[in-house]
């Protein structure tokens, strides 16, 4: 059996608590299913800064690069607010994304039936919701040059951010979206603003050409990104996979997140390009939430976002589709039974802590 290498970066705050529940699942899969996971662990964020003055060491960076997949907990906390900017906890996360060239950010918005009441929308609009937002993560206006604030000398300043996209960047994110759509509802909705932005014109054109050349079996729709935001809130179940740029994807994925309830439920994946020799993609899996300093160390954090991130890892890095589905089903079953951490607590439910939630999912 081939080895499957995982590099674990629990990080700060509730990161180590929620990662502990994933470790139990890894141990179980190795013992009971001969899964062949080989794990190693490193430091990232404030804990790495405390240990060696950097938010991730070069040695741990090398391990992250070599592993089949990286599992990331969360970083940050008030005790590191005053550390220098380039070694602040978040710098470790940004370095991982940049050095591993993780250009595709996958944010599913799944509404478990048992939690439809917790959505900010009407339950019937979101019950059974299962959409995937594919956001371009390494280009666009967050990185484009020039990026400046200039003093105009007349009491006025001018701020410039630049939206830049090259054909190859749009092609590769579109390919990820089409490939993922084939494993789901086979429909992609591409969102941009071609009516007012040149980058939107090129985005639309390249997505259309990529579709025609390689993915014409997938259904493709186009929507202006502002209308897309409206439709996400009006009738979210119309979507399957949404592909969009860095800025629109940042906003649209946060909107989609609120359709599903708690921050403690939301997983994410970030993928790189396939290796030309092996076809394997570099990948990192992490919950959307942060280190939650307000509840860290209390044993009450919801581990579901971290566990669901591991389910994405099984699916996308190891093609363990059945195992991923089983793990997600186990989460749904536990919620159906009314087992809840504090953040998703409801009337009549049984309140549990982090380890009990992990145990309940493992038992399922
Ligand atoms: P946060 O996501 O850590 O917490 C926001 C609120 O949600 C808090 O009330 C927290 O208790 C709750 N929450 C979050 N995850 C939860 C879980 N699994 N179970 C139960 N409740 C949960 O965001 P916040 O408070 O803005 O940031 C705290 C620290 O985390 C900061 O240092 C920030 O920079 C960092 N951060 C790190 C991220 C990362 O590592 N990817 C992402 C976002 C923030
Ligand atoms: Mg955001």
TrEMBL record:
In terms of InterPro entries, this protein maps to:
IsoCit/isopropylmalate_DH_CS, IsoPropMal-DH-like_dom, Isopropylmalate_DH
User: What pathway is this protein a component of?
Assistant: Amino-acid biosynthesis; L-leucine biosynthesis; L-leucine from 3-methyl-2-oxobutanoate: step 3/4
- Give the reactions, separated by semicolons, that this protein catalyses: (2R,3S)-3-isopropylmalate + NAD(+) = 4-methyl-2-oxopentanoate + CO2 + NADH
Residue sites binding NAD(+) per the record: 77-90, 290-302
- Extract the GO molecular function terms from the UniProt entry: 3-isopropylmalate dehydrogenase activity
Instruction: Give the top-rank taxon of the lineage listed in the UniProt record for this protein.
Output: Bacteria
Xref: SUPFAM superfamilies: Isocitrate/Isopropylmalate dehydrogenase-like (SSF53659)
The cofactors required by this protein are: Mg(2+); Mn(2+)
Q: Where is this site: Important for catalysis?
A: 142, 193
Where substrate binds, per the record, is at: 97, 107, 135, 226
What keywords were assigned to this record?
Amino-acid biosynthesis, Branched-chain amino acid biosynthesis, Cytoplasm, Leucine biosynthesis, Magnesium, Manganese, Metal-binding, NAD, Oxidoreductase
Q: Where in the cell is it found?
A: Cytoplasm
Q: What does the note accompanying the cofactor annotation read?
A: Binds 1 Mg(2+) or Mn(2+) ion per subunit.
Q: Which residues bind Mg(2+)?
A: 226, 250, 254
Q: SMART domains, from UniProt? A: Iso_dh
> What EC number is given for this enzyme?
1.1.1.85
Residue ranges of domain Isopropylmalate dehydrogenase-like in the record = 5-361
Query: What family, per the record?
Result: Belongs to the isocitrate and isopropylmalate dehydrogenases family. LeuB type 1 subfamily.
Assembly and interactions? Homodimer.
Q: Which PANTHER family match?
A: 3-ISOPROPYLMALATE DEHYDROGENASE (PTHR42979)
Function field: Catalyzes the oxidation of 3-carboxy-2-hydroxy-4-methylpentanoate (3-isopropylmalate) to 3-carboxy-4-methyl-2-oxopentanoate. The product decarboxylates to 4-methyl-2 oxopentanoate.
* Name listed for the protein in its UniProt record: 3-isopropylmalate dehydrogenase
Q: Which organism is it from?
A: Rhizobium halophytocola
């Amino acid at each position: 059996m081939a080895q499957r290498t995982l590099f674990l970066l629990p990080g700060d705050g509730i990161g180590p608590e929620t990662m502990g529940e994933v470790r139990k699942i890894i141990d179980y899969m190795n013992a009971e299913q001969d899964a062949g996971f080989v794990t190693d662990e490193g430091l990232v964020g404030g804990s790495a800064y405390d240990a060696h003055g950097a938010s991730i060491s070069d040695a741990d960076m090398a391990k992250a690069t070599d592993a089949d997949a990286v599992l990331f907990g969360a970083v940050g906390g008030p005790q590191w607010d005053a550390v220098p900017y380039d070694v602040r906890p978040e710098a470790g996360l940004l370095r991982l994304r940049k050095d591993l060239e993780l250009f595709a950010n996958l944010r599913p918005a799944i509404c478990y039936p048992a939690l439809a009441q917790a959505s900010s929308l009407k339950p019937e609009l979101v019950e059974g919701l299962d959409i995937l937002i594919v956001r371009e993560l390494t280009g666009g206006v967050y990185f484009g040059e020039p990026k400046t604030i200039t003093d105009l000398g007349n009491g006025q300043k001018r701020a410039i951010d630049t939206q830049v996209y090259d054909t190859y960047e749009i092609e590769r994110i579109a390919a990820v979206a089409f490939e993922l759509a084939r494993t789901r509802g086979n429909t992609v909705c591409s969102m941009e603003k071609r009516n007012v932005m040149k980058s939107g014109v090129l985005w639309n054109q390249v997505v259309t050409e990529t579709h025609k050349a390689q993915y014409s079996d997938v259904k493709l729709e186009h929507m202006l990104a502002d209308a897309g935001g409206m439709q996400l809130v009006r009738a979210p179940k119309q979507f399957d996979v949404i592909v969009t740029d860095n800025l629109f994807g940042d906003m649209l994925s946060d909107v989609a997140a609120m359709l599903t309830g708690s921050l403690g439920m939301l997983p994410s994946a970030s993928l790189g390009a396939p290796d030309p020799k092996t076809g394997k993609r570099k990948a990192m899996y992490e919950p959307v939430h942060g280190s939650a300093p307000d509840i860290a160390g209390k044993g009450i954090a919801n581990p579901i976002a971290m566990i669901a991130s591991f389910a994405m890892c099984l699916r996308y890095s190891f093609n363990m589709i059945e195992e991923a589905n089983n793990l997600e089903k186990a989460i749904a079953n536990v919620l159906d039974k009314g087992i809840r951490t504090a953040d998703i607590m409801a009337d009549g439910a049984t309140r549990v802590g982090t380890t009990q939630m992990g145990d309940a999912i493992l038992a399922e």
